[in-house]
Amino acid sequence: MYRLLIVDDERRVREGLLSHIDWASLGIQPCGAADDGETALPMLEQMRPDILLTDVQMRRMSGLELSTKAREILPELEVVFISGYSDSEYIREALRLKAVDYVYKPIRLQEVERVIRQVTAKLDERARTSAAQSRMQSLLEKSLPLLQERFLCDWWQGRWTNEREILQRIEQLKIPFDARLPMVPLVLGIDSSELEENLAQLALCEAIREGFPRALTCVCAREIDVLIQPADGAEAKALPGRLENLLARLSQRKEDAVCASAGIGAAVQSAVDFANGIASARAALQNRFFLSGSRVLFFDPEEDRPPCTMPLKMPELLEEHLRAGNRDALERCILEALDRVRQRKDMEDARTLCMQIALSVEAALKSCGAQAGLALPFCSEAQSAGTLDALQASLLQLVGRACGRMESLRAARGGTADAVHGVIEARLSEKLTIEMIAQQLHYSPSYLSMLYKQETGKTIGDAITAARMREAMRLLRETDDMIYEIAVRVGYHEQAHFARLFKRMTGMTPKDYRKQALS
Fold first, then answer.
1. How far apart, in whole angstroms, are the C-alpha atoms of residue 236 and residue 242?
2. Is the domain 2-126 a CATH 3.40.50.2300 member?
3. In 173-300, which residue ranges form alpha helices assigned H by DSSP?
4. pTM flag (> 0.70)
5. Could you read off the pLDDT of 311-337 as tens digits, one per residue?
6. Cα–Cα distance between 425 and 471 in angstroms, integer?
7. Which strand ranges, in their side-by-side order, compose the sheet holding 78-83?
8. Which of 39, 111, 310, 321 would bridge 326 by S-S if both were Cys, CB 3.0 to 4.6 A apart?
9. What's 334-386 look like in SS3?
10. Residue 26 region, left (φ>0) first, then alpha (ψ -120 to 50), else beta?
């Protein structure tokens, strides 16, 4: 119920109002009555009524003066005047004092009830509005951290493009920010931690806010964006060192250690430009992929760099070295390619190149008939590798496993000389070359020739010729085929050339050899 104070210098009016109106039915509880303004003032302070029903003309202090002083004590007080005058000057003064209504003397109780109902309706509406505002304020206070973070994320990603609107929103959300100070953008990335990712991010945010009390932080994807406003040039100059020390201490904690790196972007003065500053800090952080061990990295505007693509002949070289079992040459080839991508400092280029190399090694394994299945796990790992050094180490491990599978394949096929002889015997009628044999046995031609020479003391060319001559002699002894037919069956399509080689190997012509064999 609303509290009502009645002030009138006529006793019968005060008592009549108190006794002849059903105040409870109107939602009113009279809390007192006074005979003049001076008496009413202390009652106002003590009882703090919601409604003041006061005569205008009274001894010592008028109702108008009382209303003015009462509003100083109770700014939300609603005032209804009782007056025996219809003078316009009183009406104008009452309007200036924002009176709710008038009740003229002689007082009609129905009129008093009508006016009081209007006042309570106004008070009810104010209460509803106040309750709604309180709920909204409570909700806003509870949601404020989330609203602040969402706004910071949108602002720093470039979704707010008007300087005035950004500053207004900052003020509305009560974000601590000084538009007069420069803004230094940071992007923090977690390198490793035994904590779960969200807990590691929380620990990192808390450490930043402890080290830089004026810092604003926002978690965007798997990184933490930060705005720091140095108070002066000396503080700005000291920022990288302080940040390096903070990250070092965080990595050395016993229970909740977090190893992280930070990219420092180009400082900006305008709020609308901060999204570009964050982008430059993110580009700086990407350099940790190439500079393992550095915790604080600075933005370096991109210079023109040569494009980084896998050399066209690199797949052929990889296959040649793999067939030759030359792991050192394989690794040199890969390291040279990675050195080129280091100079470019493009993380996606580096990942792509490493995956292309892995797929080329896989293709070489398949072409040799060896067990594959190495590239897919590597490509999956490459997507999350933290540094190029880590990615390089994984790639070299893949090369080692590929070489091991090639060795297993060769061991399963027996000695090199026996394998070469088997191919020669099976393909004797073809125009056989060392390259064809090497391809079938999954060696490079030069490496296969070297191995065969070491094992037999002869060349593969000698072995091919010897095998052909042995088969020719058998055919001359055991068949009636014409000599030119035998020449074709052992891989020679010119009879004269076959005859010269045959004589060189046996000391007689094919015709003479047949006669001697049949005699």
1. 10
2. yes
3. 197-211, 233-251, 274-286
4. no
5. 777 888 887 787 777 788 888 888 888
6. 9
7. 28-34, 2-7, 51-55, 78-83, 101-104
8. 321
9. HHHHHHHHHHHCCHHHHHHHHHHHHHHHHHHHHHHCCCCCCHHHHHHHHCCCC
10. alpha
